[in-house]
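Usage

Read records sequentially. Each one opens with the input sequence:
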Amino acid sequence: MMKQQRKTEVIFVWVLAIWLSSVVNSESKVELRTSTEVKAQCDQNVSLQCDIMSPSPLKIILFSWVRKGKQLCVVNATGVFSFPGVRCDNTNNTLTLNLTRVMPSSQGNYTCKLRSNLTITAANTTVTMQECLRTSEHKVFQNESQVECQLFGVYPEGTVHWFLGSENITESASTKSQLDEEGLFDIRSTLPTQAGTEPYNCSLWIPSSGTYSSHKQLHYSRGLSSGTKTRSRLLLFFILVGLIIII
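and closes with the structure output:
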């Protein structure tokens, strides 16, 4: 009787050990696969994909995309739920977070989380922005006393450099930059003009990358001032009178 009980205990211990080993092995093999970094363009849609990699079937208790502690996509026993402003798709153990009209404010870390009957795990994706420039406007004022360069939806923050030929004359310009709620910058720069016909070059300089991302030539023809014109006409008149007297 004692031998039979002992044999039963040994079998139970072996079965328990095998079961625990299989659970540990299953947990160690379950992982989430995501892209480490996703580079986005302004106003474009971006999809972040999270795949469950498991050698055996598992039961999903909670599957989600999270940013700054806020759940953007949630998959649980009752269905799929999306945070306002995003769209979520869940198919074949893949949860996709679709971001619409990505802006600099959308940059940062996004975490895919999984809680299942086998394990609890997570993986991160970082969204970064490429350079942005939505629109630009350039004009020469009616009296040609100054030129203006406006750039809208700029990222990262930049400034305007002015050139007359190869000469950098930015110090003479007045430039203002304003940050909007989407994390983009609107820049306005004005420059007093000089007499001449050589075009001005308005260039967007991005200090963080050390490059120019936009160039525009402003053509104008500003003559002499009215006072200078009057003096020139009087000088020409006296020269003509002098020639007539000599003749």
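Summary fields computed downstream for this record:
- The CA atoms of residues 49 and 96 lie 4 Å apart.
- The longest strand covers residues 120-129.
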